[in-house]
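Take a careful look at the sequence and tokenised backbone pasted below. I need to know what the token row says about the fold.
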Amino acid sequence: MRKTKIVCTIGPASESPEMIEKLCLAGMNVARLNFSHGSHEEHKRRIDTIREVSNRLRLPIAVLLDTKGPEFRIRTFEGGKVSLKAGDRFTFRSGNGVGNQECVYVNFEGLAKDVKPGDHILVCNGLMDFVVREIAGDDVVCETLTDGVLSDRKSMNFPGKVMSTEYLSEQDKADILFGIENEVDFIACSFVSKADDLRAVREFLSEHGSPDIELIAKIENQPGIDNIEEICELCSGIMIGRGDMGVEIAPEKLPAVQKSLITKCRLLGKRVITATEMLESMINSPRPTRAEVSDVANAVYDGTSAVMLSGETAAGKYPEQTVKMMASIAEATEASIHYDKRFHNYSFEMKNTVDCISHAVCGMAIDVHAKAIAVCSLSGITVRMVSRFRCPVDIIGITTNEKSYRRLSLSWGVTPVLCETFDSTDVLFYFAQKTTTDIMKLEKGDNIVVTGGMINGLSGNTNLIKIVTV
């Protein structure tokens, strides 16, 4: 079974019931809805379609709502654009107005308070670079460092800076409320720089009666990288947004940052989605470039929980072929990795009973050459803790909670199973054994390691391990 999960962005090219079914069968585990585009009505139709197809196919497909996040943009110009040369003076100004050859307005307040002389301002995904020379009231006077054209409403980046604007915009609040109403499984929070950003989202969810929606922190800038440990305390996983990250930090540093983030989050038991331009050429081509294949494989080697497709499935010509290609690359790469050696070489800090049991389960499964690990967990936490050790043995995650069932579809190496509540450990473990045997097509003499403690609907009481021979 493929262990690395696949996140697909649903858009005009993939929103039909027929195409969503094809994506599910090709290997999609999580459907991403990008709220930078589309209306609530469009996204509602997509969610309904995903749920209908998922239920009909009996496949747990989670829905991830990706917020627009704080947006920093220039406003418009007379004539729509201006041409600038290196060395030109150019001013950025907060407020409303139309720009010209010498200045442009920006769509947020406080720019002059957030930057200082020597800071860089990047526009057009980093194609235009400006260095701040002076602050004059609300004006930020810069020197242009690159030749180029500035056109209306281009995005702005501020490398290394945490801007003082409020994290949750009114649009994000409205989108999150929509997500609550439609019971999305994950909310991906864009441009997370610090723990307080997630705290604001968590408080908003609690105020509206949905404190249990899981948060994915999108790490897209240097402050987010620097604060990764405090951020991980408030989320169930991260997304490595390599697009904006590649603008904010030097591109040559991206591979090392990706490896570091994946390792840190995995050791903390947090999911990691590696995103952006993974099979970008397949938007228009039925085959990927060799570099793209290597990029996907490298993320799998790093131990990412999932790889993500954006425009490839949202607007590309070959969404189904792209998912099949992603799945085949992941499977081929996983087959070359010695996960048992990695497990024994890693050093893990055990902080509680769940840590100790989940680690022991993986060690026992390797030692007895088990064909599967069956984890019974109400909340799914124990399943995620077993998953983080990247054990070579397939994991069957058994839960009575439908939300946990869908959310486990994002956990590395896990096949989720939804079951009824049992009133005894013996009956629960028998169900786990039978279900795992059926799913894995096990034969007489095969070993299964079963763990759990999910009795009487209690969460967090995993305290049992049993080796079962078919």
